[in-house]
Each structure stands twice: as structure tokens, then as C-alpha cells.
Amino acid sequence: MSLPDHLAESDRKAGFEVRPNPPQFSQMNDVFTRAFWDDRVKTPAAEAFFASYRMEAAPRRGDGFTQRDFALRNAAWLISDMVSERRAAEGVREGFQGAIRDDTPVAPEQVAPRAPETEAADIKRVARLFGADLVGITHIDPRWHYGERPDVRTMTPVPNDLPDGLTHVIVMGHAMDAALVDTYPSALAGAATGREYSHEAAVVMQVAAYIRNLGYKAVASMNDTALVIPYAIKAGLGEYGRNQMVLTPEFGPRLRFSKIFTDLPLAVDGPRDLGIKAYCDGCDVCARACPVKALPFGAPDFGEEVSAGSPSTNRNVRKWSSNAEACFGYWAKLKSDCAICMRVCPFNRTYAKWHDRVWRWLATGRLGVAGRRIARAWAARWPRARLKPRDWWAG
Q: Where do the structural domains in the chain lie, given as residue ranges?
């Protein structure tokens, strides 16, 4: 089957090299899902990792991993957990292994659509009103959708269905707290992750409800249904980094993403050459900082360097790929998410200070190769230091 022209052109602009007619990735092979059924990942340490989110296996071992740190992390996840557990008895973990249910019915009378540019501008205004930090729009592309999802009751594959007629994807970025991120690795830092999942659950549900009240379909989604990274890049929000994250000019890698699938006619945003990937091509700070060497040092490939043989690696796209088993194994050991690669990324800045903005100007190629060379030397000379969790608590 030939790729539609608009998707092929979008691939070209994004710099994507995708195998012809790629099979859809199964969410059964996502490393977090595998931790519930695959004995290679489902270990006692992994089970204790998940139990720690219920305060059943929270270790007490030093700064950043006290009961107070775990308590804040778990509290930050509360709203997300309430949403995700609503349909667990039906085999759906909303926002993670299944889309978020249509809490608002589609209005029987449809508002007449305006110019796609006007509708897109209004959607972005509404998304920001509800709390999204970044918003972009792109065409729907089934290549990025999971071929199947797990029934969480039995951890067996079931169809990953979406309504017919959906045409666009609204992608929203939700910025994580910079100071908490600076404390990675720690359970305290996990509060930055949980806070944004709880935040984005509310935002994505509210924006989807707005669209359904206009009389159009809208499926709210977080980590479920489709890979969000290619959609975020196609929507012009950032570029793909060596650390497996979308790097944005505004927040670097310090974001979580949600998405809405809709049939509302919208103007789309295209991929942007931001100069960030060009910087990553010559930077390996995240790979050197990874304690289990799960990140690659070489050029983008089809998953050969550090993840050969892993079912959790999508081999349909030339990209940097991680050793997902090693990465998650370290998370399980910590009993919390790691994200050292996020903290040490040179783009992880608030850009509130003039010198950070000058660094970004150099790093993103405004002076070409020479500028990136200066920026890399600058980042090496003044790397981001870890904030001690006890200092975060001290204010």
C-alpha cells in the first residue's frame, strides 16, 4: 500500500526514514506492559516497583527515597490513577492501556465548521486555557497506532479500536517542574512525572469534552492508543533526541504529552527543523550519564546498537533506540523512575536567564557547526548539577 502524499511529505520534512508498509507495534511489547506478563521483565523487583506506588514496598534508603519523598510522588499521581482505574474491571486502564472514555456525549447538533485555520487557533486557545503548555496539530497516521492493546485483566492482546472517520490529532505538551526534575534520580523527582500525568488527564479530557460539545468526535489519549513521539514531532513541537525524548525549544525534554483524535476540520502544523537533532548528533551527555548504559552512542539506526533482539524496540523507523530492559530494570531497582537522561540534557533549561537563551541560540545552529561546537564546550564546562532532594525540601 502506497503512503498518502501528505504523509510522505511530512516524513520528509521530519527527517523520518520509515520502512515501507511497516507493521503496527503491539502495545503488548511495551516494556511496562511486559512487566505484567513477560518473565524476562516481570521480576520481584518490578513487582515491588509497582507496589511502591501504593506505599506497599517503599524502601527507606537515604535522601530522596524517604517515606516523605514516596508520599509526595504517590500523591502527585492520584488524579491520574483515579482516571486510569475507572474501567479496570472492563480490562481497560484508561490513559495507559486504553483510551480515555467519552465522558461527554457528542452533541446531536453539530456546529458548522469554520475555516480550518480559525478552528485550529481556537483549539490551541482552549487547550492553553485548560493548562496545556504546548499545542500542535497533525494528520492522523495509522502507522503510529498500536496494532493491539492488552486486556489488563488477563494481559492478553485485544483490538486497539478507534471510531471511524477521525482525521486529525491534537498533541499537547505538559511541562514538568524544573526543580523536581533536577533531583533525579529520586522518588521525590517522580512527583514531577505524576503531577503532569494528573494534570494532563484533566486537560486532555476537558479539551476533548469541548470538541464533543461542538458535535464532533474526540478521543482523549495519554500513553495509550498510539506512539505520541512521532505525532509530537509531526505536529511541530520538537525533534527527537538521543535520550528517546522529544526535545522542544521551550522546555527541552522536560515534558509529558497527551493527544486527541478528532474529526474536527483543522489546519495542521508541519514538522520543524529546530537545529536540536543536529546538536544531538554530536552530543552523548545522556548516554554517558546513563548508569546502565541503556542509551546509544552511535548514529540513529533500526535498533541494532543497544537493543538488538528486544521486542520493546520499534524497528520500523531509523532512530536512536534504548535498551528498554536495562532501563526499566534500573527503575525497578530504584522503585521510581530514573530520568537522569532528562536532567543532564543540555536543553533542560528554563530559558529564563539570558545566558541560557544565548546558549540555545548557539546550540540550535544559528552559527552553524561553529555555534554548536561552542555550545557543546559551554555545556561540558558548566554541566547541570543535581539538586539534592533535601535541598528541595528546604526550599
A: 5-393
For 59-90, the DSSP string reads: ---STT-SHHHHHHHHHHTHHHHHHHTTTGGG
Rounded CA separation 170/74 (Å): 29
Q: Tell me the residue type at 394.
A: A
Residue range 293-348, pLDDT digits in tens: 999 999 999 988 887 789 999 999 999 999 999 999 999 999 999 999 999 999 99
Helix, strand, or coil here: 135? strand
Strands 246-247 and 239-240: antiparallel
What burial class does residue 100 get, using C-beta atoms within 10 Å of its C-beta: 0-12 exposed, 13-18 middle, 19+ buried?
A: buried
What is the DSSP code string of 222-266?
SSSSB-HHHHHHHTTS-EE-TTSSEEBTTTBT-EEEEEEEE-S--
| pLDDT value, residue 1 | 67
Residues 393 and 395: their CA atoms lie apart, in Å, by: 5
By the 8 A CB rule, do 29 and 149 touch?
no
Tell me the residue type at 131.
Answer: G
Give the rounded distance of the alpha carbon of 281 from its chain centre.
21
pTM of the predicted model as reported, rounded to 2 decimal places: 0.96
**d(Cα 137, Cα 114) in Å, to the nearest integer?**
16
Rounded CA gap, 12 and 60, in Å? 50
d(CA 132, CA 165): 26
Q: Residues for the chain: how many in total?
A: 395
Q: Which ranges of the chain have pLDDT less than 70?
A: 1
Cα 142 from chain centroid (whole Å) = 18
